[in-house]
Amino acid sequence: MSNATSETPVLETDRLRLRAPDRRDEPALLAFFGSERARFYGGPLSENDAWHKFAAYVGQWRLRGYGFFAITDRETGATLGLAGPHHPAHFAEPEMSWLLSDDRYEGKGLAKEACAAVLIHLFRDHRWTDVVSYIDPDNTASRVLAERLGARPDPDTPVPMPGCDAFRHFATEPA
Asked: Domains in the chain, start-ordered, CATH in brackets?
């Protein structure tokens, strides 16, 4: 059986390895989507719905040539979350998004480290000039992270997810 993600990029930081998600990430991500932590991602979801969401994230790499990276620990290989551009059919443009699969990983700068690496990759390798993030007003941690990454509110961008605000990341801003 061939690995459909074998040709996708791998990004590395001091602590993290970012690669296309695959079956190794399934347990951690299905647990995330089935938990209250997934409330900003449509959850908690049933096991079946969680699997379908995960499968869509895996499949986006084949359909679009970019997608979420699995955030993994360089030393242990543990799946810590996801970061990258999410682009379902009903979105006018890709959305830079992120999640940490367990609260044990919060407060350590892991999401910022992963997102900064992904943004550099998108701006340098894909030559994107900007990318949007849609963030629920109640998701304080994501709003703070977006601002730390240099994103600015973008009230002129149509938001495909009701109740969310748009934040725009620019290639000219340091990640």
From this structure: 11-170 (3.40.630.30)
